[in-house]
Design goal:
This protein is α/β, with parallel strands linked by helices.
Length: 317
């Protein structure tokens, strides 16, 4: 289940790396920036080709101040391929973006994406800086105490490893594992697995944190770590873009819903929920998911505060 995101800054450069490794890094970063279907990073059949119109009955549910502005202020943290990242021109694209663009059309609003550190988005929503967050947030019982969530996708955790590796996520004691800072993998999943190691008298997992997911992927390709833990769509995309350098380390586990966070009690939540459900029922949602190759996490129903549990089942809580 993942929580997806962290404070993301620009990719850190690694001084003193030999030419061959720098070339490899450049290839990896290029892969992270571009989707194979087009030079712009957007799939050949983008959401722009999905015709979505305003639905007056749903748009009428939008709070008056937001409706009056005509804009939906969205806090987002990039990069997190394939959900939200930048194309070579600097435009924010991805599955989440295409879906939110469609949601905004249903609501009769213009989406305005505002970049922020991941861990600052929810506080900014509480303060009214953003109307909604869109950054692959996991809807959890703990987070529902701070904000309301509108669910739109189902994701799990999946590990990746170099091709030919033999990492077992449930027995990775003593291994170096890359994660993105402040994600569920960083705060909950890998620490719980490490504690199980030390409780059994085995070496702890060495968690290696990175500000961006790109850096975590690069570290794995360059052999700086033994494995990487991330959300299932992120891991699948990294593997697909690695040209055979990376493979999955075990199956997807601990699935949980992604959700859009909004201010607690805001009438924007039911408006968003009905907009997402409208797109699901009319097939545009599935088309957008298919365009990005993330169909496996598609849902049939959008819910408000749909967290199934308070914490990962691997945790003692």
């Amino acid at each position: 289940m993942s929580d997806r995101r962290a404070a993301r800054t620009g990719v850190r450069r690694l001084p003193g790396v030999v030419t061959a490794l720098l070339a490899t890094t450049a290839l990896v970063l290029a892969g992270c920036t571009n989707n194979e279907s087009s030079e712009s990073g957007r799939p050949s059949a983008s959401a722009a080709a999905v015709k979505v119109d305003k639905v007056d009955a749903i748009a009428a549910l939008v709070p008056a101040d937001i409706r009056g502005s005509g804009q939906l202020a969205i806090g987002v943290n990039v990069p997190y391929q394939p959900n939200e990242f930048k194309d070579p021109s600097g435009k924010i694209i991805g599955y989440d973006v295409d879906l939110m663009d469609a949601v905004a059309k249903v609501l009769g609003l213009t989406p305005v994406y505002k970049e922020a550190d991941f861990d600052k988005i929810i506080p900014a929503i509480q303060q009214g800086t953003y109307n909604v967050g869109m950054s692959s947030f996991t809807d959890s019982k703990e987070r529902e105490k701070q904000v309301d969530f509108v669910t739109y996708y189902n994701a799990g955790i999946q590990w990746a490893q170099p091709a030919g590796g033999s990492i077992d996520p449930n027995n990775a004691c003593g291994k170096r594992v890359a994660v993105q800072s402040t994600t569920v993998e960083d705060t909950d999943e890998v620490p719980a697995k490490s504690k199980a190691c030390t409780d059994a008298g085995k070496p702890a997992i060495e968690k290696v944190k990175f500000d961006s997911q790109d850096e975590a992927v690069n570290a794995l390709v360059l052999g700086k770590v033994d494995a990487m833990s991330a959300d299932s769509p992120v891991t699948a995309y990294a593997i697909k873009r690695s040209s055979g350098k990376l493979v999955a380390a075990g199956p997807v586990f601990d699935s949980a819903p992604y959700g859009y966070p909004v201010k607690k009690g805001s009438p924007l939540a039911p408006a968003l929920q009905k907009a997402v459900q409208y797109l699901i029922d009319n097939g545009q949602y599935r088309t957008i998911a298919s365009n990005w190759g993330v169909d496996s996490g598609s849902v049939a129903t959008s819910a408000i505060n749909g967290a199934a549990r308070a914490c990962l089942p691997i945790m003692d809580c």
